[in-house]
Amino acid sequence: MAESTATVPPTADDDDGGLKRSITGAQLFFYTLGDVLGSGIYVLIGLVAAAVGGAFWIAFAAGVTVAAITGSAYAELVTKYPQAAGSSLYVQKAFRNRPLTFLVTVSFLAASFAASGSLATGFASYFSELFDGGGPPALIVSLLFVAILVLINFIGITESVVMNMLMTFIELSGLLIVIIIAIYHIAQGNADFGTLTDISVSGNPGLAVLAGVALSFFAMTGFENTANVAEETIDPYKAFPRSLIGGMVVAGLVYVLVSMAAALTVPIDTLAESDVALLEVVKQGILPFSTELMTTIFTIIALVAITNTTLVTLVTQPRILYGMAREDVVPGVFAKIHPTRRSPWVGLLFSGLVVGALLVTGYAVTAAGGGIDLVNRLALVTVVFLLLIYALVIVTCLKLRGQDEDERAFRANTPLLLLGLVGNLAILYYVIYDDPTSLLWCAGLLAVGGALFLAEHFFGSRGTGATAPELEKEI
Amino acid sequence: MHVIVATDGSKQSLAAAKQLKAFADPTKITDISVVAVMRPLASVAFADDLSDHPARKGEWESASFRDAAESALSTIAAVYDGWGPKVHKRIRSGSAANEIIKAAKQYDAGLVVVAAGGRGLSDSVLVGSTAQRVQHYAPCPVLVVRPAPRVKKARKG
Q1: Does the structure show a pLDDT above 50 at A464?
Q2: Looking at residues A157-170, what average pLDDT do you find?
Q3: Confidence of residue A475 (pLDDT cuts 50, 70, 90)
Q4: Residue A134: pLDDT above 80?
Q5: Phi-psi region for residue A132, left (φ > 0), alpha (ψ -120 to 50) or beta?
Q6: Å from A25 to nearest chain B CA?
Q7: Which of A23, A88, A98 is the closest to B40 by Cβ?
Q8: What confidence category does residue B41 fall into, taking pLDDT thresholds of 50, 70 and 90?
Q9: Band of the pLDDT at B113, cuts 50, 70, 90?
Q10: Is the residue at A474 inside a domain?
Q11: Residue range of the domain that includes B152
């Protein structure tokens, strides 16, 4: 080693695989499943039941199908561009139009914030069940919930793959309990299958189902977060489409079974009125165990499920802000990484504050007699954004055909994609037709995003996030 | 001897890499593996604070955390340019401490170089830092490079 000038040029992928990736197909499958399952079923099933009636499993089946087709477009794009930026990246690649990319990103963030808010309220509803409807005030619970998740995220406990799998299994077990209760109920000969075809609303049954589809669609959102781990997936060309679409199909199947189970075991009115609809199934006391014990267990499972999904949304938001800051779309401060924890702490704090502010405002509006449930309202309104983004992603997928092709890349079925596009637009049309004021809400949310954009435009010129943030600037 | 130099893209890790060079005897070291660990489930899987990237805005290239890890590895590897030992750049994926320890075992390392976290609350009170865990479980000696004490900023005005 005397001739030290002859340093061998370092290579990144020498000998034993210098480029190790760690997420296996199975892990990705459970990541998708956990992410999708927690996002809606525990919170939304009552609303869907209210919109459609006993046949609300049809709405779930349709919503899930449209979502899964959209998922296949994501799978194709992810295998082509395995970076973690998700829809923003794809739209940018296809249209190279910064305002459009910005719009997509802000819409996605808005939807994600609203979803976190809705999940946090859902968490509080289930939490109060542990105290028989009493316990600490819901607002405090939901705020603490968000604060703790932000902290956990900052420390990095979320990064445990094992923990993630464990939470998904717990989540799945809750839904299995519901299905088992229904099977037991059927075996005892108490089930009335007539409920399953009952569309108990006045007016057009087609529209009723469409309303249910729009709602149940929300239960499938979250799958796009799987792009987070695209870059770290082993053999992504094979594993990603399989696990993403497989995860969505399994989640969809579970949804349909669970909604059938709920419809068979609980009167639809009870489901429709409940904040904790799935818990009603357990509360029917069908299984020959202590109902009280079952209720507690199930409540805890529901809490885990909601936590799991909220964690993923809280991981995704700072990541998107980070990406945008590095592209100089939002102020560079969002690209600030904590020097030792390596977390994007500014973005994380911002996400936590926005969701917290949303919860407080929602509470204030209700307390002041505003007559609307702001948080859930926003969550539903932002479905408009998601539908637009999904439709756009399908268009993007088709537009990028022939570009950056790789024979290993997954190719989604084109007629199905067109069907998915029509499905997304139909749901979008219905949501706006049903509730034109949602457009106003959306405009308001976009204005907030626009303010951020302008802030960057006028004040952000010196701090480009593209260079490393200065460590010394802190405190 | 095979030495592992871990980087999380932080400036401390660059300081640690230089520290090794400052006292070690290059003729005793055969190989240096610079290891970066991606954290797939984290908000930011890898952030590179070390390199000046040629920013390609509008391309969303910075969305690739692997690219960030590669550029951090290159910056660290450049520290040992012309020093002697063969330098390998390796990206791993998973939990940082785990992967560093695994790498140490796999490459039969004689020394692991890590940067210690800050001296702040978050590292002593909350879950132990990567450096602590590596210290506890590494199969070989560990060099933990602590950050220099903060210089009072008052002089700079």
Answers
A1: no
A2: 80
A3: very low
A4: no
A5: left
A6: 14
A7: A23
A8: confident
A9: very high
A10: no
A11: 2-156
Q: Which amino acid is at B141?
A: P
Q: Smallest CA–CA separation between B141 and chain A, in Å? A: 22
Q: In this predicted structure, what is the pLDDT of residue A463?
A: 44
Amino acid identity, position A260: M
Q: Does B121 contact A at CB distance below 8 Å?
A: no
- Of B26, B38, B90, which has the smallest distance from its Cβ to A1's Cβ? B26
The two beta strands, B86-93 and B31-38, are parallel
Q: Could you tell me if residue A34 is inside a domain?
A: yes
**Residue bearing tokens 């537009």:** A399
Average confidence (pLDDT) over A246-262: 88
Domain span including residue A163:
25-455
pTM, to two decimals: 0.82
Average pLDDT over residues B8-12: 86
Touching check for B21 and chain A: CB below 8 Å?
Answer: no
Choose the weakest-confidence range: A249-263, B17-31, B113-127: B113-127
From the list B73, B83, B126, the residue facing A4 with the nearest CB is: B83
Number of domains in chain B: 1
Residue A369 lies in a domain: yes
CB contact residues (below 8 A), chain B span 74-93, against chain A: 74, 77, 80-93
Rounded CA-CA distance B53/A155 in Å is 27
- Please report, for the domain that includes residue A107, its CATH number: 1.20.1740.10
Query: Quick check: is A468 in a domain?
Result: no
Nearest beta carbon to residue B93 from set A232, A467, A469 = A232
| Beta-sheet strand order (sheet of B142-145) | B86-93, B31-38, B2-7, B111-115, B142-145
- What pLDDT is attached to residue A282? 83
ipTM over 0.90: no
CATH of the domain at B121: 3.40.50.620
Does the pLDDT of residue A395 top 90, yes or no?
A: yes
Q: Is B118 on the interface with A (CB under 8 A)?
A: yes
Interface A:B, Cβ pairs < 8 A: 186
Cross-chain Cβ contact B62/A323 below 8 Å: yes
Answer whether B80 sits within 8 Å of A18, measured CB to CB: no
